[in-house]
Amino acid sequence: MTSVRPASQVRSVPGLRPVSAWGRLVRLLYRAALPLSDALGVVVAFIAAYELRAATGRAGELSPLPQYFPTLALLVVSLIFTFGLSRLYVERRATSHIDLLGALFVAVTIGNVIAMAITALSLNALDVPRLLLVFAWALTIGLVWAGRMLLAEVLRAARLAGVESERLIIVGAGEDGHLILHKVLGAPELGYQVVGFVDDEPHPEADRPVLGPLSAVSDLLQRHRVREVVVAHPGLTHLQLLNLVAACSSAQASLKIFPDVFQLVAREVTVSEFGGLPMLQVRDVNLHGWNLLVKRAADVAVSGAMLIILAPVLIAVALAIKLTSPGGPVFFIQERVGMDGRPFPLVKFRSMRVDAEVESGPVWALPEDDRTTWFGRLIRRYSIDELPQLVNVLVGDMSLVGPRPERPYFVEQFSRLIPRYAERHQEKAGMTGWAQVNGLRGQTPIGERTRYDLFYVEHWSPAFDLKILLKTLPAIIRGRNAY
């Protein structure tokens, strides 16, 4: 039986940076700067909207700008209040720019409605032109978002310099725990210091020290001044999890739980009631009815428009392939597995030699793969070789967003090795997906990619699709694991 260290014998952590007073100052200044930046963005947006309305309207339609200052003041107060209720002043280290833009869209809309409702109830209120309000609404979203991005870059620089950091421990030193560790180490801009693991087993092979058993969590949180705990231990009992929650609450540390998606259906859950009894209701996100109609309509409209707009690019790429790699076809057509396990012919621009797999058989592409032509390497780097798949989307074989399709040879292998792998075929294959915009391409582990694909399948929504599409272009430019 494996020995377990008692709670009184937790390990110290050499090389851990001390909690800096400068870090606390930077965090305080950031929190103070947020509402000031937001207020400035609202004021500048309103003044710019006034000037834009004056330039596009007839003379005499607008009152002098100072007469709108009471409305502007009410708008600033309403928006700051709405942002607070929307938890936009709660610091989150891993919020994406796209998520923030979506949250601002909702909050600015609500804040504007509240301000205009109060203005309408005031007997002496000045009538504000509707077009001015529309301009101010759109400019407010953009300028407030830009201001927050600027502050985020300043904070990011402080975190990269090690000035503003948060200490974190990971519960569970197994495979899931190391997945979290490597994600944190790969994103130093988040500003986390991983103190170590907490586990009842010693795990001498762990990449960070195992600080002690689960019973020592309270002591570890206080001793190392930890402010964030990530649970990545699928074997925790209900009682152990409740004890962790209590320990984190007592130490004022936030708690995140990484789900085991291979054993737990991680669909969106809401609280409801059944005859007065509390119930957890799983949200139905399957593509049927209106959901299917909306997604298909977006696929047809966007793919059709993109094929027309990009026609000159497609023709130029086709000519370049013919000139740089004569003797072979322009397009590469390969059987892939789509929705419900049905095969379909996927179309790509040819980027490799015609005899690329004559000797090797089915294999994935490698970095600096000598089977790739020099022009093929260029178009693969920026995913231009994938553009013909717009035809697959238009005819209904694929969707713009979804799990990337694999070849039947690989699907058969992965279905045997990876639990729940086949469930990624519950939706149409996509040109881009949640795994791809998070850098999981090329030789990245298929198990990790499957986690992201299942998360997409179980949390699908039109807004999620839009978020992935908006993140696709930056992901292509970064080119992580693209070869």
Write structural notes for this entry.
This protein is of the alpha/beta class and 483 residues long. It has 3 domains: 140 residues, no CATH class; 94 residues, Rossmann fold, CATH 3.40.50.20; 189 residues, no CATH class. It is 48% helix and 12% strand. The chain is built from 15 helices and 11 strands. The strands form 4 sheets. The protein has a 5-stranded parallel sheet, with helices on both faces. It has a two-stranded antiparallel ribbon with strand order 6-7. A two-stranded antiparallel sheet has the order 8-9. Helix 2 packs across helix 3. The longest helix is centred in the first third of the chain and has 36 residues. The protein starts with 20 loop residues before the first helix and ends in a 5-residue tail after the last helix. The N terminus is likely disordered.
